[in-house]
Amino acid sequence: MPATVEILRAIQPLNVTPNMPVFTNLQGRPIEPKAFSTYWYRCLRALGLPIRGLYATKDSYVSLAMSRGVDPVWLQEQTGAHFETLRRHYGVWMRGEGANQLAKLADLAPQLAPRRSGLRQVVELS
């Protein structure tokens, strides 16, 4: 995301090479998840949040994004997870957008455009 890139560029060291890790420990080495876990769990306890592994943050992000109707192709680019993986693991959170997708085709085939009828949505295919 552009805001994240902006923040990371603002805090980057002066001499950066493409192979350098973004987040390092005090010795300049990559932060290892196991070493970071102690601080992660302390933060969760201090905030009164359920104790979950660091990897759960990606699961939470993807689940929330999918439940809000975020485009899976964009989400694939954000997370590095292939679409099939997103569908298999997070498919329950994908929204059914059939009527909205048909509405995008309305100028090509007006008979496909959804019409509201009471509480149900009706699509005439005649």
Structure notes:
The protein has 126 residues and is mainly α. It has two domains: 15-93, no CATH class; 96-126, no CATH class. The chain is 47% helix and 5% strand. The chain has six helices and two strands. It has a two-stranded antiparallel sheet. A hairpin with a 2-residue loop joins strand 1 (115-117) and strand 2 (120-122).
Identify the notable features of this structure and list them briefly.
about 130 residues; mainly alpha; 2 domains; two-stranded antiparallel sheet; 6 helices; 2 strands; disordered C terminus
List the helices and strands and how they pair.
Layout (H helix, E strand, L loop, with lengths): L1 H10 L21 H15 L8 H12 L4 H8 L3 H8 L7 H6 L11 E3 L2 E3 L4
Antiparallel strand pairs: 1-2
Short synopsis of the structure:
With 126 residues, the chain is mainly alpha-helical. 47% of the residues lie in helices and 5% in strands. The protein contains 6 helices and 2 strands.
Strand order across the largest sheet: 1-2
Percent of residues in helices:
40-55%
Radius of gyration: 22 Å
Uncertain runs are 117-126
Shape: extended
Number of strands: 2
> What number of domains?
2
Integer average pLDDT: 78
Structural class: mainly alpha
The sequence of SSEs as H and E is HHHHHHEE
Number of helices: 6
